[in-house]
Amino acid sequence: MLKVVIVAILALATTLVSAYDPSPLQDFCVAINNTDSAVFVNGKFCKDPAMVTANDFFFPGLNIPGNTLQVNSDQVKLGSSVNLVNVDNLPGLNTLGISLARLDFAPYGLNPPHIHPRGTELLVVMEGTLLVGFVTSNPNKLFTKVLNKGDVFVFPIGLIHFQFNIGQTNAVAFAGLSSQNPGLITIANAVFGSNPPINPDVLAKAFQLDKNVVDYLQKQF
Amino acid sequence: MLKVVIVAILALATTLVSAYDPSPLQDFCVAINNTDSAVFVNGKFCKDPAMVTANDFFFPGLNIPGNTLQVNSDQVKLGSSVNLVNVDNLPGLNTLGISLARLDFAPYGLNPPHIHPRGTELLVVMEGTLLVGFVTSNPNKLFTKVLNKGDVFVFPIGLIHFQFNIGQTNAVAFAGLSSQNPGLITIANAVFGSNPPINPDVLAKAFQLDKNVVDYLQKQF
Amino acid sequence: MLKVVIVAILALATTLVSAYDPSPLQDFCVAINNTDSAVFVNGKFCKDPAMVTANDFFFPGLNIPGNTLQVNSDQVKLGSSVNLVNVDNLPGLNTLGISLARLDFAPYGLNPPHIHPRGTELLVVMEGTLLVGFVTSNPNKLFTKVLNKGDVFVFPIGLIHFQFNIGQTNAVAFAGLSSQNPGLITIANAVFGSNPPINPDVLAKAFQLDKNVVDYLQKQF
Amino acid sequence: MLKVVIVAILALATTLVSAYDPSPLQDFCVAINNTDSAVFVNGKFCKDPAMVTANDFFFPGLNIPGNTLQVNSDQVKLGSSVNLVNVDNLPGLNTLGISLARLDFAPYGLNPPHIHPRGTELLVVMEGTLLVGFVTSNPNKLFTKVLNKGDVFVFPIGLIHFQFNIGQTNAVAFAGLSSQNPGLITIANAVFGSNPPINPDVLAKAFQLDKNVVDYLQKQF
Amino acid sequence: MLKVVIVAILALATTLVSAYDPSPLQDFCVAINNTDSAVFVNGKFCKDPAMVTANDFFFPGLNIPGNTLQVNSDQVKLGSSVNLVNVDNLPGLNTLGISLARLDFAPYGLNPPHIHPRGTELLVVMEGTLLVGFVTSNPNKLFTKVLNKGDVFVFPIGLIHFQFNIGQTNAVAFAGLSSQNPGLITIANAVFGSNPPINPDVLAKAFQLDKNVVDYLQKQF
Amino acid sequence: MLKVVIVAILALATTLVSAYDPSPLQDFCVAINNTDSAVFVNGKFCKDPAMVTANDFFFPGLNIPGNTLQVNSDQVKLGSSVNLVNVDNLPGLNTLGISLARLDFAPYGLNPPHIHPRGTELLVVMEGTLLVGFVTSNPNKLFTKVLNKGDVFVFPIGLIHFQFNIGQTNAVAFAGLSSQNPGLITIANAVFGSNPPINPDVLAKAFQLDKNVVDYLQKQF
């Protein structure tokens, strides 16, 4: 019985749920990342402020290139890598409404069409040449641009966007995002790779695809 | 010269830009829908409150079934129809954070996978049987349910969702959305039907499709 | 002693306090509805997201007419019934800023003057004929309209409004509200039926009523 | 013709619509109070910041007692006076989310039951003895207290509240409100004194009053 | 072991962290001020609403002059005193976005340059003569004014401001602030008196001061 | 006369006032940067969305090192340079809540103690070694850290912070800020270099400095 009690208490801190937009109500509210969890809040529980140290606001290693040879969980090799510093790995970001990412691209590497449901992305190219774009809500207008070293581009919150290395060399970019937990919806994976899969009739009709193609795609993702 | 001046002034009211989340700062702020426009704000300009009448808060005709035989702008027949009452056609909704839709479905009609970037949808079925679902951000978990008459289901803001009539009769639903301008991104159209089209290399790589298939799809949407 | 501990832990989830406006900080944050409670937050504590199922986003039965013959808690028969689907009975609504209601009216049934302090109401008439209206803040202007089947009307947040069945048949309406917990202040009940009662000198002076009438009214509500 | 143009331009600044909750997007945004107006925004248009002076942030005369002998617009003598400093008379308050009021009470003077739809009120008594209270949303619980010099009490946003001088001397209080335009709904006036009047059948049924009494009250307010 | 459990539970309520801007999600959410704490939220945990009484919204004693002879924690006698009523001593203010302060000044007393990072201040002079001012963000423009009895002045959120008694008598003022926890950064103390001290090379270079002067100042504060 | 009219109209777009926190109410709202201005809003007026192009979301040149030899406007050579990309030079950022900066430091260069009143800063070091820190609101605790290449550190909104190159080589950093117009208050300049100057009695008393030193400092800044 007592064991149950302890588990329930540890549950007050959590890993999976994270925080975003509402204003901070104190100087800071450093997230607690416990792995046992049963009770959550909108955002994250916080650490006792008297226990907070400078390390809670610190994250190292963003100078290290990401592995663009990785095969992602859906067995698709895209030739890109995103290292996101958000409230999950930099707990001091909690309640503060910002995160940061390093993006690496092999030649012809792609960060495929995706949405951040809770954040605008502001990207600066450090090395290489990227074709980038975003599509507005209906009607669907594409805004696209080729970016070189030092170029900055903004992808508005909630819109589908992508970055594609059209150069023959590696490319590197950094991006700020307007949330400590911007979220990520990779369109192809969400549509064809959800768990459980979406009813194939829905996808065949929506994408004007033969059901065999839908079946093939659902196996890929 | 004077003509130019007048046009610029009319431009203060606008049709295309609409309003959503920030709190109202007065009892109401009825949107002005002018078609000449050159200057905009975050949301909409408003009507002189002394000129406002009850009709500014009124919209008729939601008892009329939508045309589910329609062929949408991308020449795709889905067998569904959505009649959305938002700030564009009910100007009194401006600054008030809510809208309403009537959804009609022919047998096997589909409201295809889409996102409302600025609104949660709360749906109630009036007639028929719908298979509905939404997919979370990565990792992509599908939550799905069969709904009958009187059933209510919620689709959280910013997530991909769909409604599919799996019955042999027409289906009707009403939905409230948590914004006066929730926005709509129909996934298939935004990805394969944007104007101009997304670079086909991007889509072929992202969706694991042969470029011929991408080319075919881009012609459909 | 141990018993006390357990009760305190259960208190983390609660029934009475509910959530509304601040943005969601994750895809969803399904409310936990525990009845034992001692610790609360602004809004509601949430369920472990790994335990969430489609049923957490589901509520059945809104096809069933409300009982318009009911006598409310203040022994007043108004001939109306409101069935509200909010975060208290549809926990998936937590943090998502919307709720839904079914309103039934007997002939001459009244939903009396009331305020939703945290929500705008957007109503559509399904059957019957309603006289509706809202009153602005000082100076008090009435906006009023007769609504028939398919008509939509918006009642701005925080303003006094009412719906009155002026037809000889039953009337039915559905309404979206811009909060998962819009709140409800029925004016007559709040003023004349509070517990404990408001000092009758205050009410007699405010409403220009004889103290005997105030006394009578305080007994009614 | 030119005259029309000029009027339209002046219309960009307005008196009647005011601003409240959304965060300021610059150090300040001093409201412009023009009397000609045809175009409005959520909140107020602002003055050129280069033209702003210290006087835009200044308002004199809150040391002067209000006239508690006044007969208000509804011909009701309540023995109280409220002098509100909000964005309408202190334009520097625009976008800053706060206002201030001086309240004067003759012996037995009453600030009758009312609601601020957009603001919490925090009151401090300077002189005299006040009976104060507020009523929660349904179910309607009254929280009440007798306040003396130096006592502070908070009335939460959107709830019905009142202040009543139960002493035999004048009373004075100051109050901060959490909006530059908190709004004011005096319950009795809004219900019985709206323009045009609410259908008397609605009021008779809602307040359990004889229609003759409703008729009498509608003439009073 | 059981003891550990109990401490962890008490930790759910806390003294040090407080709440501000996001909208209230219920009528009220009275803060709990426990001194044992290990788990926090953005803002404060709340009391069971069924246990709330009128005293939770009440704070006495603001008629008592502050001690302007006090020597503050940095051993500096400034001749002023601020008595702030915020969510820490008036728990009913939690989630409601407002606080109140009484300011007392001895002749030539100073409330030194400071910032409220989470609140605008709206001040009214009750007695005496104050020189007040605030400085905008870069470029740094000073807005300044001499205030007498009954004068009101607003200091926008996040800007450096001060109040200085330039009269030969005591001065008294009241101020509303647009947050239940506006925060306070006294510039001189934060810069020269932080714990641990800021690197003196930083301060010498930033303030164009000799390192001996910086060393002297860091000993003062 | 006509000329006056035209100027007033152009005034609808503005350079000096910028936008930040409230949510976007449409996909984007690209700021208009006109230099003539007489009417403003909270934030910025926007461009006709039909006229928007990809270049509105684009800013080049952040690969170019800033000039760390510059003498700033107060004739102080600090050995640092900040190139901020915000809504003033990247109009597509309007309403989107994020900005980006490149920071260059000569050896021993200093970005002196300052505050962003409307934004948290998230910094990543690209080259060199920086001593960084921030000070909490009262009581004033310093959080400090030495950062090397690839290290990330967060400076919470509204708190005093600094970055100091303690290496013998140049240093470069990039920073995201959680507002399209975060604002900047350089403490030493705002206190000692405002225009007009703050009353020297105030500064002498606040900083415990001899009036001659205050006089000297006010001439420096």
TrEMBL record, chains A, B, C, D, E, F:
Keywords: Apoplast, Disulfide bond, Glycoprotein, Manganese, Metal-binding, Secreted, Signal. It is found in: Secreted, Extracellular space, Apoplast. Mn(2+) binds at H114, H116, E121, H161. Residues 1-19 form the signal peptide. Disulfide bonds join C29-C46. The keyword Metal-binding applies. One of its GO terms (molecular function) is manganese ion binding. Its main location: secreted. Residues 82-215 form the Cupin type-1 domain. Oxalate binds at N111, H116, E121. InterPro entries: Cupin_1, Germin, Germin_Mn-BS, RmlC-like_jellyroll, RmlC_Cupin_sf. The keyword 4Fe-4S does not apply. PROSITE patterns: GERMIN. It comes from the Eukaryota. It holds the Pfam family Cupin_1. One of its GO terms (cellular component) is apoplast. May play a role in plant defense. Probably has no oxalate oxidase activity even if the active site is conserved. PANTHER family: GERMIN-LIKE PROTEIN SUBFAMILY 3 MEMBER 3. Belongs to the germin family. This is Germin-like protein. It comes from Quercus rubra (Northern red oak).
